[in-house]
Amino acid sequence: MGNLTLGRYIPMDSPIHKMDPRAKILAMLMMLIAIFIPSGWIGYGILFVIVSMVIILAKLSFSFIFKAMKPMLFMLVFLLIINILVVKTGYVLLQMGSIVIWSDAVFNTLYIAVRLLLMIMITTCLTATTKPLDMTMGIEDLLKPFQKIHVPAHEIAMLISIALRFIPDLIDETMRIMKAQESRGVDLKEGKMMERITAILSLIVPLFVSAFQRAEDLANAMEARGYAPGQPRTRYKQLKMESRDYVLLICAGLILAGMIGMAVL
Fold first, then answer.
1. Which of 44, 93, 140, 181 makes an SS bond possible with 186, Cβ 3.0 to 4.6 Å?
2. Can you tell me the distance from the alpha carbon of 8 to that of 23, in angstroms, rounded to the nearest whole number?
3. Can you say how many angstroms the Cα of residue 193 is from the centroid of all Cα atoms in its chain?
4. Which residue has the higher pLDDT, 180 or 55?
């Protein structure tokens, strides 16, 4: 669980860190849309190279990015098993008695794995290079046009920011509780199924108590500082788009258009 990196901000002096959060959020959305366009393996290869270049510019390590894939391995294995049982097209790759593994079952699983990898790389790069406060302001500014139809832009941005900020805190709290339980003789990794379920329950209860306590402390701190949802607010820091931010948006738009072109052609 300590491998989960989404939501962790890594302070660095890089061009990506200095960019406007609104530009990074919009570029991320365009890249995510490009991922779901069926542009083939060549298109995904191009996307992987581009995202890797962004990670290098952000001065992030690839090990930090790929750690986020580890929690997804179980889901990918489960998906592979389902595809093997359901998909019966393509050509036979392997046959073991009555079990036949078809090529489309493996390729479909790889297709989804590549998409997940690209999505995690993009989202982790965003959260690792954007401060939670900047993320809140960026989301709020992007949602401001929807205030005309009574969409609470600030409240939504605040909720997203708090959720992202609480992810690493809850992970650290889970690791602390696991170490405390193991020091008391609780085995969370071995034993029979019922014993492991009981051990997990002993982990979940204190984790929920700690999470509710953190939420209450945060609510009290916000009330003590005069926070009132729905009331007009001012900012000390104002966001300002620069030329590099427009270059980022243009590049993301061109990549999206290129993926659409590859899918159509």
1. 181
2. 19
3. 31
4. 55
Q: What contacts 77, CB < 8 A, 6 or more positions away? A: none
Residue 99 sits at φ, ψ, to 5 deg, of: -90, 120
Domains of the chain, residue spans: 1-130+240-265, 153-229
With beta carbons less than 8 A apart as the criterion, state whether 138 and 21 touch: yes
Residue among 246, 259, 254 at smallest CA distance from 23: 246
| Better-scored residue on pLDDT, 2 or 127 | 127
